[in-house]
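Q: What residues go here?
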């Protein structure tokens, strides 16, 4: 076997250089270690290395890799390096090959996007997924060609970021500002000095390799007359209806906490609120940590984290009231000063790069309460929807090329998740001496306008802070204008000086809060700042119009499902917002397929009808499918299409079981277990398990969902590629054969006859859902039945005694969407139907 490292060794004198001699490793599965070394040799460049075939394949990249897909970096392929080189950091002697300082700039793992790496390298197009500490997502190495179309003699390649959620269009050369080792936090200059006192940091999530004393503080730089710990005016956000799109914008998670500026330097730290109040003594542990940070002025948010590691404002309130602040975390998202250098005139992209480098320089023992906030270059709406599903507050969208300016600016805008607002407290109510609810509003023209009651969310810990604050602010008269606020016995008025954060279910047309819950008091804001009534993230009222995901809703408060003993009423706006929030779960099953829709424009108590064709009045957000009929079928491709269906009263969604965009090719088999009215649900559960066993025996992977009624659906995904494709007749024949076999095995339990009179205490195995133009209700689709039930995808572990299909309703949708999707691997479980057809003799 050829020695791949011979060229590497021939170029080095290992008596002079500390570089590892190394040896060729054992080839393993494709992918492996990935790293970038910042190399200050004759010219500063970046050595990009990936593990392959027992060595590190290497390219010298002219500049720092950019997350901007429009930026292409020249990458010159060089000799293979030993795997041991992946931990090298130090200085190569001057005059030697590659003489200069080497810094470990990024590290992680890589995975090829196609199985044959050798073929990709030979072809000159290697696509990969990086999972590093600084770079992530899809990247490509593409070999350049000479003017004659042949490979370049110098073996030049281009390193390019692919367009995905990790891309940051417009970020340009920002990564050039990151001068900090991911292993030790050292700059190139500090590595060149050979300071051995620096500790080696572990990889993300790994154990510490070694521990040594922390480095001595950097020499104190000269500062302006304002001093190293002066407060600098904070840049604030404007509220918008939805995140901006287009290149040049990036999006950060909006954290639910207190905005804090930290000024560090000289072994001290000061923590300021958004108004410049010194709160250092309120966060003593964080202040102590920050005293050991490099000198600078840091902008961020202090948060408490819950068991899911997500910010929890109520927990922050409790921590402050009980003075138990040791577990709080500072999320740093901007840097105003670095040492004595004012960064505010630099574009955001460069400030963030400098911030990331400074965070990396923080000594390990002082890093526990510090988090760097990265940004996303993906669609702002997609980031917002993800944040809302994770129960976060929303997103902040920022222009990458904008400087930092105090006050509100159009270059920073916030889009909040549905139902999370600040309100002014104007009073509270009690009954028999016990606290019941807050009376809240917003300021308009300097006067308080009533919004409604906040009746839940009052934990014992929060009441320890709330009740004394209410009593201290007591007033003799109502602070509300107008006559909408309640009065009388049990109502207590206060001065409009306290701000509450509340979570709610939206607003009525009259402007009142729905189902509001108290989250905590805000001490960092004043009443005069709470002047507007923000709407849900993509819901906004414009000149009396309610718009969701770009679709205008007429009569948004029209009740589509009246309240029942178990469930509240559901309006058209509620349905539209559900479709918006559930789009990521719904679209994989209904998107780009012909649909049959049950519409009820006046609600389930009015007239309902079945629609499958796209008539002349169909909106522009809907897709038309030409499938041979006189009129095209209707379909949707995005969240706007789903909301357009809600606007037209589309309560139920029944898609074809076909491949997206190809109505003539089935991609799933569905069995509808429909029991006779006398059948107990336990028998349906047993039937579903029997179908599951039968399909598994035939090589398929079945999934299960409730139907919103008394039955269950068992669905198996099938391959629809050219080698495995079956037609509708074959799909239906397979389903019929399985159903008939089950009927023959247990004729007293099952029937395959459609007529209800033939069921006689049996379960009808409906295989007819598998023909061309046949449909089945989609996972996550509501049903036009009392209580607004959902056709709910569930795990097989849930199919047991006690399963209540009526428990899955639109009222419970928010909680259900926060849980893991039991059908997340539906498409990954596809299997060819052809072997099963052969076994059945079809």
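A:
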């Amino acid at each position: 076997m050829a020695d791949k490292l011979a060229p590497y060794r021939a170029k080095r004198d290992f008596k002079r250089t500390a570089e590892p001699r190394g040896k060729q490793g054992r080839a393993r599965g494709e992918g492996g270690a990935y790293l970038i070394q910042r190399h200050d040799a004759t010219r500063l460049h970046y050595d990009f290395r990936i593990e392959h075939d027992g060595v590190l394949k290497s390219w010298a990249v002219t500049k720092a890799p950019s997350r901007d897909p429009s930026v292409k970096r020249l990458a010159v392929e060089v000799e293979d390096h030993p795997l041991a080189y992946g931990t090298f950091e130090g200085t190569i002697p001057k005059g030697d090959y590659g003489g200069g300082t080497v810094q470990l700039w990024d590290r992680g793992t890589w995975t090829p996007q196609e199985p044959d790496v050798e073929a990709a390298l030979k072809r000159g197009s290697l696509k990969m997924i990086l999972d590093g500490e600084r770079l992530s997502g899809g990247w490509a190495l593409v070999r350049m060609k000479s003017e004659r179309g042949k490979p370049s003699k110098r073996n030049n390649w281009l390193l390019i970021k692919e367009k995905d959620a990790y891309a940051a269009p417009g970020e340009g050369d920002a990564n050039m500002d990151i001068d900090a080792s991911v292993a030790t936090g050292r700059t190139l200059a500090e590595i060149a000095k050979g300071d051995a006192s620096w500790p080696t940091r572990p990889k993300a999530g790994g154990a510490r390799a070694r521990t040594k004393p922390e480095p001595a503080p950097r020499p104190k730089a000269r500062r302006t007359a304002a001093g190293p710990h002066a407060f600098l005016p904070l840049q604030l956000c404007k509220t918008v209806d939805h995140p901006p799109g287009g290149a040049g914008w990036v999006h950060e998670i909006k954290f639910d906490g207190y905005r804090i500026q930290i000024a560090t330097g000289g072994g001290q730290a000061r923590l300021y609120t958004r108004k410049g109040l010194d709160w250092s003594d309120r966060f003593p542990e964080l202040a102590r940590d920050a005293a050991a940070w490099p000198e600078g002025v840091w902008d961020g948010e202090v948060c408490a984290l819950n068991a899911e590691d997500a910010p929890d404002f109520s927990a922050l309130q409790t921590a402050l009231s009980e003075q138990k602040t040791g577990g709080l975390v500072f999320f740093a998202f901007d840097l105003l000063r670095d040492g004595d250098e004012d960064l505010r005139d630099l574009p955001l992209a460069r400030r963030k790069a400098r911030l990331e480098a400074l965070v990396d320089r923080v000594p390990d023992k002082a890093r526990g309460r510090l988090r760097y906030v990265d940004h996303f270059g993906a669609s702002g709406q997609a980031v917002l929807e993800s944040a809302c599903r994770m129960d976060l507050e929303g997103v902040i969208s920022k222009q990458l090329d904008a400087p930092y300016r105090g006050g509100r600016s159009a270059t920073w805008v916030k889009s909040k998740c549905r139902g999370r607002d600040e309100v002014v407290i104007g009073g509270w109510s009690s009954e028999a001496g016990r606290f019941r609810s807050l009376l809240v509003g917003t300021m308009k023209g300097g006067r308080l306008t009533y919004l409604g009651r906040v009746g839940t969310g009052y934990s014992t810990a929060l009441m320890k802070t709330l009740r004394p604050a209410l009593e201290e602010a007591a007033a003799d008269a109502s602070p509300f204008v107008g006559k909408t606020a309640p009065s009388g016995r049990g109502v207590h008025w206060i001065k409009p000086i306290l701000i509450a954060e509340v979570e709610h279910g939206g607003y009525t047309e009259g402007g009142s809060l729905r189902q509001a819950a108290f989250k905590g008091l805000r001490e960092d804001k004043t009443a005069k700042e709470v002047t507007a009534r923000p709407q849900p993230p993509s819901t906004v009222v414009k000149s009396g119009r309610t718009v969701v995901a770009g679709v205008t809703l007429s009569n948004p408060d029209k009740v589509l499902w009246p309240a029942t003993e178990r469930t509240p009423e559901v309006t058209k706006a509620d349905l539209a917002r559900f479709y918006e929030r559930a789009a990521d779960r719904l679209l994989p099953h209904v998107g780009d397929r012909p649909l049959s829709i049950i519409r009820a424009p006046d609600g389930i108590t009015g007239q309902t009808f079945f629609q499958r064709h796209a008539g002349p009045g169909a909106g522009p957000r809907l897709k038309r499918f030409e499938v041979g009929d006189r009129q095209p079928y209707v379909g949707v491709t995005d969240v706007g299409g789903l909301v357009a269906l809600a606007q037209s009263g589309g309560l139920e969604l029944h898609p074809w079981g076909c491949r997206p965009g190809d109505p003539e090719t089935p991609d799933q088999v569905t069995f509808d277990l429909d029991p006779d009215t006398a059948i107990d649900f336990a028998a349906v559960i047993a039937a579903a398990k029997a179908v599951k066993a039968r399909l598994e025996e035939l090589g398929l992977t079945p999934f299960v969902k409730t139907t919103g009624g008394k039955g269950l659906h068992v669905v198996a995904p099938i391959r629809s590629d050219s080698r495995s494709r079956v037609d509708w007749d074959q799909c239906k024949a397979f389903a019929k054969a399985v159903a008939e076999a089950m009927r023959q095995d247990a004729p007293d339990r099952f029937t395959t006859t459609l007529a209800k009179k033939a069921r006689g205490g049996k379960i009808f195995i409906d295989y007819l859902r598998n023909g061309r133009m046949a449909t089945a209700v989609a996972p996550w689709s509501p049903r036009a039945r009392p209580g607004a039930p959902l056709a709910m995808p569930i795990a097989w572990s849930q199919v047991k005694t006690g399963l209540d299909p009526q428990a899955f309703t639109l009222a419970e949708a928010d909680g259900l969407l926060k849980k893991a999707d039991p059908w997340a691997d539906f498409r990954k479980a596809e299997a060819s139907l052809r072997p099963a057809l052969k076994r059945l003799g079809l």
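A: Context that may help when evaluating the design: Confidence is low (pLDDT under 50) at residues 204-226, 534-543. The chain has five domains: 6-193, 235-416, 421-534, 559-655, 664-779+823-839.
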